[in-house]
Design goal:
The complex is a heterodimer of chains A (423) and B (232). Chain A is α+β, with helices and mostly antiparallel strands. Chain A has two domains: 2-48 and 274-419, no CATH class; 98-222, no CATH class. Chain A has helices at residues 2-11, 13-53, 61-65, 80-89, 132-136, 139-142, 159-164, 200-203, 211-218, 238-252, 272-308, 310-319, 323-359, 364-367, 384-411, 414-419; strands spanning 56-60, 93-108, 114-125, 143-146, 154-158, 172-178, 184-195, 206-210, 226-231, 261-265, 361-362, 377-378. Chain A has a six-stranded mixed beta barrel. The longest helix of chain A is centred in the N-terminal third of the chain and has 41 residues, at 13-53. Chain A is elongated, with a radius of gyration of 31 Å. Chain A starts with a helix and ends with a helix. The relative contact order of chain A is 0.19. The model of chain A has no long low-confidence stretch (mean pLDDT 86). Chain B has one domain (4-228): Rossmann fold, CATH 3.40.50.300. Chain B contains seven helices and ten strands. In chain B, a hairpin with a 2-residue loop joins strand 1 (4-17) and strand 2 (20-33). The two termini of chain B are 22 Å apart. Classes of the chains: A alpha+beta (423), B alpha/beta (232).
Chain lengths: 423, 232
């Protein structure tokens, strides 16, 4: 009987062509959209980790309370010994110290008077003693003009800010800020290069300098406002991160001491757990909406096909087939069509996703005025989950369509279906 | 003595209409014995098809009783009525109603698939049936490649392949020319004689009437006449 059904489907174009096209198009759309969303999510996580959160972050308990404001006056000071201890204790993590701060950038003219001024986001990282930050921030790739700092007193600027303030490479600028103790401080820096990270939030106006220069500016001897830790394999794992953070906090964090260190996982920062949860539920909703819409389209197609085949159903009932058998036959046909359509859709969707996985998709236009840390090129990420989420609804929607359309077999009297033989 | 294989007792059938009910059959009392070659004749709307539908357990009487193979049609569940049709009843239609996407062989094979007959046995039965109707050379053809007469012969083979007790034929020659009609009637008559299958036709075709051994005339849902006919 199965063979009989298969022959029937593929010899009758009306039974397979439209449903397969619909399912195929839907599955292609789903595979690509889910891969794109997964790629965007990965990019978002990666960018946040690199520039903002790390996979784990150590700050003081007081700083953690106001982490969104980046209060560097609540930073950790004299932490070199602890830093070395943590590096030894957690060899699976790579550690970097950073200071984020806000400052006024003053550009003097030849007489030393202000030619231009602007607010900048300061980003102090270890540029001179280790290559790790160069790798994390991908500085070589981000460098637009000039070179990377080689000595103290040299800094990088975002390319857009350099243009906006009419600064030339090699010019000296003055950062005006406040020390951790509240005093007004100034530091001259020579801009030796410009960068463009492809991240709107940073490219609008950032100064990147070596951490030793900024410690001097902010009067933070051996201090860092944030210490970031990254898993060596580059992949964030929330379970491992939560375990490490719990262990770290149990050992080093003292609830009675607001300047004791506290380790935060990536998902505990910047509302990321909520955002990631939203991403996941969006994918789930998409799958549901997909099943619903496709179900309606295929229901309609099933109805049209069913009406065309009432005569055949009548004949089959006359010959002795049960209504249940005819109905199950319809569902079997739908299942086969759904499987075939979904498989073709999966292959095509995979092909398109692979193309964008290799070449990326330029979304810089959407990032221009946003503070979200995401890359300008999004590379689709193909996961087994996305393939399954796309495949199953492809089959389900065909089954749903046929199941709804097929109820007409039960609603009509056998003799009525039989009469339609003559129609 | 021939066995009674179908009977109706005071059977009536009505259909709801916008203005009330339309009485399609009124107090029908008939008996059909095995091996009959019977025609139900009468003008359009006289209840021929309704009677055939009830005898074929595709419909149920509103009042009275209809029995086929000793089973009361009114009391059959859907499953039982399907089983009755698949095992004991064959249908032949005016418009052939072959499944267009299947070959001649597959069309004839279909009723046997429902009976879950083993493949080899099925093949033999289909070939036998096609031999009875003289279509051995059209095994792989699709219905669209056949003439009307050939299509009706396939329909006969499909009805006969499971060797049913009764074949119900609704205007089987209405769409055929004289030559093909006679050929079809001859084929059915031969099968009736060789296999002892009961044939019940609804028809108003004179060519058919000439072949019948019994003619039941329906007028306005009532039996107006029930006579042995001349039969060739």
């Amino acid at each position: 009987m199965f063979q009989f059904i298969i022959k029937g489907i593929f010899r009758d174009r009306h039974r397979w062509l439209f449903p397969i096209l619909i399912v195929c198009a839907g599955v292609v759309m789903m595979v690509f959209t889910l891969s794109f969303m997964q790629g965007y999510q990965n990019s978002f996580i990666r960018q946040n980790a690199r520039f903002e959160t790390g996979h784990l972050k150590v700050v003081t308990r007081a700083y953690a309370e106001m982490i969104e404001q980046k209060p560097y006056d609540l930073a950790m000071l004299n932490i070199e010994d602890e830093f070395k201890e943590w590096q030894t204790k957690y060899p699976e993590l790579s550690w970097v110290q950073r200071i984020s701060f806000g400052a006024l950038l003053d550009v003097p003219d030849e007489r030393g008077e202000t030619r231009a001024q602007g607010q900048v986001v300061g980003f102090a990282v270890d540029l001179l003693n280790s290559k790790r930050e160069q790798e994390l921030l991908n500085l070589n790739k981000a460098l637009v003009s000039g070179r990377l700092p080689r000595a103290n007193g040299e800094a990088l600027m975002s390319d857009a800010a350099l243009t906006r303030l009419s600064i030339k490479i090699g010019e000296t600028v003055t950062l005006i800020g406040g020390s951790v103790y509240g005093a007004m401080t100034m530091q001259n820096l020579v801009i030796v290069g410009t960068v463009n990270f492809g991240v709107g939030a940073l490219d609008n106006g950032a100064v990147i300098a070596d951490i030793s220069d900024i410690r001097q500016l902010l009067d933070m001897e051996q201090g860092a406002s944030e210490i970031l830790a990254f898993f060596e394999n580059g992949e964030y794992n929330d379970k491992v991160a939560s375990r490490v953070a719990a262990e770290f906090n149990a050992q080093y964090s003292d609830p009675e001491d607001e300047f004791s260190p506290k380790m935060l996982t990536m998902m505990q920062q910047n509302n990321l757990a909520y955002l990631m949860g939203t991403f996941s539920s969006m994918m789930g909703w998409m799958a549901l909406v997909f099943v619903f819409i496709m179900g309606i389209v295929l229901w309609n197609s099933g109805l049209m096909n069913g009406i065309r085949r009432y005569g055949e159903f009548g004949l089959r009932l006359a010959i002795g087939e049960q209504k249940r058998q005819v109905y199950l036959g319809l569902l079997s046909e739908a299942f086969i069509v759904g499987i075939v359509g979904s498989c073709i859709g999966l292959v095509l969707g995979l092909g398109i996703s692979l193309y964008f996985n290799k070449n990326g998709m330029d979304v810089s236009a959407y990032n221009r005025n946003t503070s979200i840390l995401s890359e300008n090129m999004v590379y689709t990420s193909i996961t087994l989950k996305a393939l399954v989420i796309s495949f199953i609804p492809g089959v389900l929607s065909t089954l749903l369509g046929a199941a709804l359309a097929g109820t007409a077999i039960y609603k009509r009297q056998t003799s009525q279906l039989f009469k339609e033989l003559e129609a | 003595m021939n066995k009674v294989i179908a009977r109706t007792i005071n059977m009536s059938k009505s259909f709801p209409t916008g203005e009330g009910e339309f009485l399609a059959l009124k107090n029908i009392n008939l008996e059909f014995v095995s091996g009959e070659f019977t025609g139900i004749v009468g003008p359009s709307g006289s209840g021929k098809t309704t009677l055939l539908n009830i005898l074929g357990s595709l419909d149920t009487p509103t009042n009275g009783e209809a029995e086929v193979m000793g089973q009361s049609i009114r009391q059959l569940t859907q499953r039982q009525s399907g089983e009755l049709r698949s095992q004991h009843i064959g249908f032949i239609f005016q418009t052939y109603n072959l499944l267009p996407v299947y070959s001649v062989f597959e069309n004839v094979e279909f009723p046997l698939l429902l009976l879950k007959m083993p493949a080899e046995e099925r093949r033999k039965a289909v070939l036998n049936a096609l031999e009875w109707v003289g279509l051995m050379d059209k095994i792989s053809s699709r219905p669209a490649q056949l003439s009307g007469g050939q299509c009706q012969r396939v329909a006969i083979a499909r009805a006969m392949v499971k060797k049913p007790a009764i074949v119900l034929a609704d205007e089987p020659t209405a769409n055929l020319d004289t030559e093909n009609s006679l050929h079809i009637l001859q084929t059915m008559s031969n099968l009736n004689k060789e296999l002892g299958t009961t044939f019940i036709f609804s028809t108003h075709d004179d060519k058919v009437i000439k072949y019948l051994l019994r003619v039941i005339k329906l007028i306005d849902g009532e039996v107006a006449n029930d006579d042995p006919a001349s039969g060739i």
